[in-house]
Amino acid sequence: MTYISHGDSVTVNCSVEVKENSMIKQMVMKNANKSYLGKSVSMLYRDVMKNGYLLRITSKFSILDITEMFQSSTPLIFEFTLTDGTRCILTYSESQWKKESHDVSRIIESLN
Predict the structure, then answer these.
(1) Mean per-residue pLDDT for 83-102?
(2) Which of 43, 75, 86, 99 would bridge 92 by S-S if both were Cys, CB 3.0 to 4.6 A apart?
(3) Which residues are CB-neighbours of 42 under 8 A, at least 6 positions away?
(4) Residues 75, 94 contacting (CB under 8 angstroms)
(5) Residue 107 contacts by C-beta under 8 Å, 6 or more apart in sequence?
């Protein structure tokens, strides 16, 4: 994640492995209470792998949305919609979430 102060936004880059040659058209991050739609979703690159493709994408979220997402005690869910309509859903394990949410929350606190 990269914080952009002049737009008060956060750029989120992530990778998704898919079986079919496709592109991601939408990215949504969800916590227990709310869904957050990524803006300006675009593909950084696509790599051919042994059993499919690795898609590296980027999207933007407001800093307020990121703050809300990482205050949740339940793991964040990433939902990607491919151009063919297929949805890919990924999440953190409980232990990964505990560490990641703590780390991101500390970084956000340092911005204030």
Answers:
(1) 93
(2) 75
(3) 57, 58, 59
(4) yes
(5) none
